[in-house]
Amino acid sequence: MYEGGCLCNRVRFQITGPIRNIVHCHCSRCRKAQGSAFATNGIVDAAHFHLLAGADALSAYESSPGQTKHFCKHCGSPILSRNTARPEQVRVRLGTIESDISERPMAHIFVTSKANWEDICGELPQYETYEPGR
Known about the structure:
Blueprint: E1 2-5, E2 12-15, E3 20-25, H1 28-34, E4 39-45, E5 49-53, E6 58-64, E7 67-72, E8 78-83, E9 89-93, E10 107-109
Parallel strand pairs: 3-10
Antiparallel strand pairs: 1-2, 2-5, 3-4, 4-9, 6-7, 7-8, 8-9
């Protein structure tokens, strides 16, 4: 089980299942949404993601047709995204999880879109677009 929340602590959530397909996404949209070199996201079954507090503090932005990003309207912390094509899952921004995470990232994606000032280190696979199988 994982617990997490936003920077101002108004939004609180719990994850009661595994996190899968963890990736570091370097696309320009994720960089802008995070304000950083990349976003680290993981997939969680929607049935295992439980909003404990702060439903009224969440705001949403449809970043592309069918893709909605949810964030705290007070502190701006990105929490999760949902896709209408896959309502059974949510993509959680791993930086908002406060518990130790046992699962590990599997890849860097959209590396051809990475910030020019960033050097990707480590031995994780790097892909020009999505990781294979998605």
